[in-house]
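--- STAGE predict ---
source: upstream dedup step, 1 unique chain passed
mode: sequence only
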Amino acid sequence: MAAASVPDSHDPIVRALQEYTTCDVADALVKLEVYHGGFLPGITLWSPRRQDGPTKIVGPAYTVQYAPAHDGRPKWPSHYIDSVPPGAVVFVTCSPPTSNALYGGLMSTRAKASGAVGSVIDGRFRDVQEQRDLDYPVFARDVGTTPPGPLFKVVAVNEPVTVDNDGQDVVIHPGDYLVGDANGVVVLPKGLAERALPLMAKQVEADAKMAAEIRKGMTFTEASKRFRS
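--- STAGE serialize ---
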C-alpha cells in the first residue's frame, strides 16, 4: 500500500516539512522553548495501516470542535466536512471527551475528494476498514462504533482548539502545521515555522554524522560532544 503523501503545495513550509519527522519538529520546538514539543499525546496512526508503513501527513490544520448537545453554543449550520480546503489536515476534537466516535468513513471519503491530506481525531473514529480501503491517513486515540449525534454537536469550525499534554495546553490554531507519522502527531505553530526549519536541518545533519561515527565505534557521549555542541 502506497504512502499517503502531501500533494503539491504552494506553501514552501509544507514542502520543507515533508523532509522531516515528527521527532525533528518536536526537537526544534524544544529548542525554541516550547517544551511540550507540539506533541499531541495518545494520537497514533490507524489508517492506511496501524502504526506501520511510510504514511506521513503534513498540512495546515482545519479544526473542528464538538461539544455536548446541551452546550449553549449553536450547532454549526452546515457539515464541516464540505468546507475542507485542499491540502488541509482535518483535526476533530470534543470537550469533554466522549466514547462516541467523532468521525467516520464518509467523512474521509469527502475529505479525500476535497484534497485533504489526512485527518487527526482527538478521540475515537469508526469504519476502520473503510478508511483503509480509501488509502486515507487517519490518526486517532482509538476506535469506536457509536456516532456522536444526538448527544454531541459541532459548535465551532476553524477556531483554536486545545489538547492537554500532561498538564500543558497544546493549542492548535487554524493554519498551524500538523505533521503526523508513525511516531505520532505534532503541531508546529505557523509563527514559529520559519525559525524551526533551520534548527531541524542542523539537527538532522548532526545526527547523521553522529550515527555514522557511532557505527564505527565512537561512543554516544563523544559523538554528541563533537557534533551537537
